[in-house]
Specification:
Distance between the termini: 38 Å
Shape: elongated
Number of strands: 0
Strand content: under 5%
GO molecular function, one term: DNA-binding transcription factor activity
Structural class: mainly alpha
Helix content: over 70%
Order of helices and strands: HHHHHHHH
Protein name: RNA polymerase subunit sigma-70
InterPro entries: RNA_pol_sigma70_r3 (IPR007624), RNA_pol_sigma_r2 (IPR013325), RNA_pol_sigma_r3/r4-like (IPR013324), Sigma-70_RNA_pol_init_factors (IPR050239), WH-like_DNA-bd_sf (IPR036388)
Oligomer: single chain
Length: about 190
């Protein structure tokens, strides 16, 4: 789906005329004075420039449609913030900063997801072992004691596991069932 949007964007971009150097200078003078139409044309006329920056980050963890969106936001901010100097260098710097931040955010989210998945798996494993040992499901308090974690954290992990299953629609016989439902509604 993202690729479809990206392709539509590329098709629309073919209809937009890039700014010439002379046009850019004139538009920058007007934009600094607050001319909204000049700002709009500056953005429009430099979308290919933003796209080229986004392509530098292809295959690094984000879909091209997301990269284009970040690059276009950087371009828009560069136009809004411009006062004097080399516009293209300023725009490139602004675009690159947003693209790098988006990739960093993506990387951080992935690490958090991996950490939480490890915690869910560990909780499921310990819950299963305790159920065998006790002949019944372990309580949240017993799990917390065994895992040396606060009960609130155990409840959060359990809730997250159930929430993840409800989002993916994978209900049925799963290891999460052995965690019980105690404490979810608090």
């Amino acid at each position: 789906m993202n690729e479809e949007y990206y392709q539509m964007y590329l098709d629309e971009l073919k209809e937009i005329r890039p700014c010439t150097d002379q046009e850019r200078e004139e538009l920058l003078r007007k934009a600094v004075k607050g001319d909204g139409a000049a700002r709009k044309r500056l953005i429009e006329g430099h979308l290919i420039f933003a796209l080229a920056s986004a392509k530098d980050f292809r295959d690094k963890g984000l879909p091209m449609s997301d990269l284009v969106q970040e690059a276009n936001l950087g371009l828009t901010l560069a136009v809004e913030e411009y006062r004097e100097g080399d516009f293209l260098a300023q725009a490139r710097e602004r675009i690159m900063a947003l693209l790098k931040a988006a990739l960093d955010d993506q990387s951080m989210e992935k690490k958090v997801e991996e950490t939480m998945l490890e915690r869910v798996n560990r909780l499921q494993e310990i819950s299963g072992k305790m159920a065998e040992e006790l002949g019944r499901e372990a309580t949240v308090e017993e799990l917390a004691q065994r895992m040396q974690m606060p009960t609130g954290e155990i409840k959060d992990i359990m809730k997250m596991a159930v929430d993840a299953l409800s989002v993916t629609g994978e209900f049925g016989q799963t290891p999460v069932e052995s965690l019980g439902k105690e404490g979810f509604d608090e």
